Amino acid sequence: MVRLLSAWRRDLVCRDAVALITDYLEGSLSARQRARLERHLAACDGCDEYLRQMRMTIDVLGRVEPEDLEPEAREELVELFLRYRAEAEVEAEAAAEAEDGDGDGEGDGNT
Amino acid sequence: MAKLPSCTTAVLLPSRPLRLPPTLGVVAGEDEDELIERLRAGDEQAFVELVDRYHASMLRVASGFVPNRAVAEEVVQDTWLGVLRGIGRFEGRSSLKTWMFRILVNRARTTGGREPRTVQLDTGDGGSVDRFTAEGTWLEPPTAWSDEVEDRLAAPAIAARIRDMVEQLPDAQRQVVTLRDVEGLSSSDVCGMLGITEGNQRVLLHRARTRVRAMLADDLGKRAK
């Protein structure tokens, strides 16, 4: 028991600090855990640099632009859109007619 | 014509513990509302704008779930149809991007079919085992990234390399890091899409980031010489 308690009190070692970095950046550490980690980071250049590099890694990941869209792909999608729109119009007309007919159409357009 | 729920953004928000990532909430805004209205009205140009904005991103997300590029393209096309069909019912409870990506991930997951990699040596968080002494201190602390390295990280040329690195990750890690760090979606949105817990997501994210950092360090270290 005494030993457990002292293990808890003991400062973090680098391996533990590194394992906690994502939890730290995600804001999911308890206040006490965070304080413990920050104490370690303040005293350990290696871990501090590691944290810095993790931050830069995340930053770089967020700046990766997707590949450019090929013109053919765009054209294909525009065709898809036009087809969809034409069908939707036909459906809407049919629905309107049905409603005119008996007022009980399925003109919900939600399917 | 079709009766649309007039925008009910504010009314529907409260019950969700919504943690918006810094970028999304702001970018979404008015410009997005306008785009949605135009799309509902059947405006072709609005559709093209949306395609230009998101199609390539959707492709790279889909690619993390399905076996090849051709299938990814099918999934994304199918998603566009889903977007067109559903936009009338979109209530603005999330950003348009999140809503679209939810449709996308749904479809990508049901399509699935990625071959389980035969050799999946999952060394936990990417080799931490031998980075430390028995006492848990660094065997060799990370070498500081010099200004030159930082410049290289900031250059557009790095993009292709990073894409490559992400593709090398095991599927689950790749999916999480792509949605979170590359696309900037929030943790709760991504957990919902993938059907995983926050804790599980953090583990996957941690492993993915750890590996990418290690690959970057390797890469940059070598070339810095």
Helical residue percent band of chain B? 55-70%
Which CATH class of the largest domain in chain B is shown? Mainly Alpha
Q: Helical proportion of chain A?
A: over 70%
CATH architecture classification of the largest domain in chain B: Orthogonal Bundle
Q: Under CATH, the topology of the largest domain in chain B is which?
A: Arc Repressor Mutant, subunit A
Domain unit count of chain B: 2
Structural class of chain B: mainly alpha
The number of domains of chain A is 2
Major sheet of chain B? none
What structural class do the secondary elements of chain A suggest? mainly alpha
The fraction of residues assigned to DSSP E strands of chain A is under 5%
SS strand fraction of chain B:
under 5%
Q: Which two chains have the most extensive interface, and how many residues on each?
A: A-B, 47 and 57 residues
Number of strands of chain A: 0
How many helices of chain A? The count is 6
What separation lies between the terminal Cα atoms of chain A? 64 Å
Give the terminus-to-terminus CA distance of chain B: 66 Å
Shape of chain A: elongated
Number of helices of chain B: 10
Low-confidence stretches of chain A: 105-111
Number of strands of chain B: 0
